[in-house]
Amino acid sequence: MPGFAPSLETLIDKLASLPSIGRKSAQRLAFHFMSMSDDEVTSFKEAIDNARNNVKKCIVCCNFSDDDVCPICRSKERNRSTICVVEDPRDVMAFERTHEYSGLYHVLHGVISPMNDVNPEDICIKELISRLSGDEVTEVIMATNPTVEGEATAMYISKLIKPLGVKVSRLAYGVPVGADLEYADEFTLIRAMEGRKDI
Amino acid sequence: MPGFAPSLETLIDKLASLPSIGRKSAQRLAFHFMSMSDDEVTSFKEAIDNARNNVKKCIVCCNFSDDDVCPICRSKERNRSTICVVEDPRDVMAFERTHEYSGLYHVLHGVISPMNDVNPEDICIKELISRLSGDEVTEVIMATNPTVEGEATAMYISKLIKPLGVKVSRLAYGVPVGADLEYADEFTLIRAMEGRKDI
Fold it and tell me: Angle at which helices A38-54 and B6-16 pack, to 10 degrees?
């Protein structure tokens, strides 16, 4: 069966290999790239290059930033006694969207995962420990994902932190707000029962 | 609320403006672009450039092709007496996937749409008419989309073709195979009734 033109097929294949893009979307995108003006394509490619070249890790919290120190770490309005430790910069965004948390963050950029050859020294743990040397930080909230690896990473880090006299806490487990109990998995229900509170 | 790094935000905005990519996918893609190797990014950008530079319209059928004449128009195994007229190169792929149609194609690259300032001379109609000058083609199948504009374009072209003594047909309307009648719209059901056949 003759397909599309080979160089169009190559572009479709490249697009389909990106995360969250299926074959149909890849086709639509490829046709879109074909119909874009030269300026639009140039500005698209520049956006990729700029992000890759300008974005670095904040030297304090390791979150992505265009500056050496990110806006959150620079802010005078944040509560500097609490650090929320997350796996990924997107998790910072998720917490910021709540407009409730006013402390600082630390981005690990991954979780410890011997299966995938990710060891403690491969993620930003030492940068976190070095932030705890003064008296400023009194609590570290472990907000890694509630997965086996996220859990193990939280445990590993909490063992490093506790000797420093800093309180370590973990996000509460339970049923998500607005969820239907019927569809909750058994582990979540067990944790929700264990964590029940008087009302 | 401090967001991502500005150059990362710019990339996310660019990605989110592409068709079929929402905000969440744009974030995932932007992070993916950040984590790609330089070689991967270069080859991605080259794929866009190659598709844009190498792909042209087949001088016969106007389908996208890396060569002057596309593989289908060049093929000795196709039935050269029938031309299936479609709006878009993706429609050619849809018919090819059926493995049933062995004739040729003609890609209009759009439909006549006065509302969007698309006139008959803006789509590949004259290229189609010029293919009908010999005796080779005996039937033209109008396979534009079953929309108001697709319909009007099919009518317009059929009026141009009929004086040339070439048979013009239109795809059958009816209920899609495997669909649930309950969810079929009334226009489709009316057409399906009108087009009913003895069994």
Answer: 140
Complex ipTM > 0.85: no
Contact A83, A106 (CB under 8 A): yes
Mention the CATH class of domain B1-38: mainly alpha
| pLDDT band per the 50, 70, 90 thresholds, residue A191 | confident
Is B109 in contact with B62 (CB distance < 8 Å)? yes
pTM, two decimal places: 0.75
Both structure tokens of A60 = 């304090």
Residue A149 is predicted with a pLDDT of 92
What local confidence, expressed as pLDDT, does residue B159 receive? 94
Domains B1-38 and B69-172 share a fold: no
Which of residues 116 through 155 in chain A touch B, CB cutoff 8 A?
Answer: none
Does A108 have pLDDT greater than 70?
A: yes
Nearest CA in chain B to A45: B45
If you ran DSSP here, which 8-state letter would residue A80 be given?
A: T
Average pLDDT for A85-110: 90
A34 vs B: CB within 8 A: yes
pLDDT at A1: 42
Fold classification of A69-172 (topology level)? Dna Topoisomerase Vi A Subunit; Chain: A, domain 2 (3.40.1360)
Interface test with A, best of B52, B86, B102, B109 (most A CBs within 10 A): B52
Contact A88, A107 (CB under 8 A): yes
Q: Where are the domains of chain A?
A: 1-38, 69-172
How many residue contacts between A and B have a Cβ separation below 8 Å? Answer: 140
* Rounded-to-integer distance, Cα B128 and Cα B95, Å: 19
Q: Which residues pair with A168 in a beta bridge?
A: A140
From A4, A6, A55, residue closest to B89, measured CB to CB: A4
Instruction: Identify the bridge partners of residue B93 per DSSP, sorted by sequence position.
Output: none
The pLDDT tens digits of the residues spanning B157-167 come to 999 999 999 99
Nearest-Cα distance to chain A for B187, in Å, is 27
Higher per-residue pLDDT: B173 or B179? B173
B72 touches chain A (CB under 8 A): yes
**Residues B123, B139 contacting (CB under 8 angstroms):** no
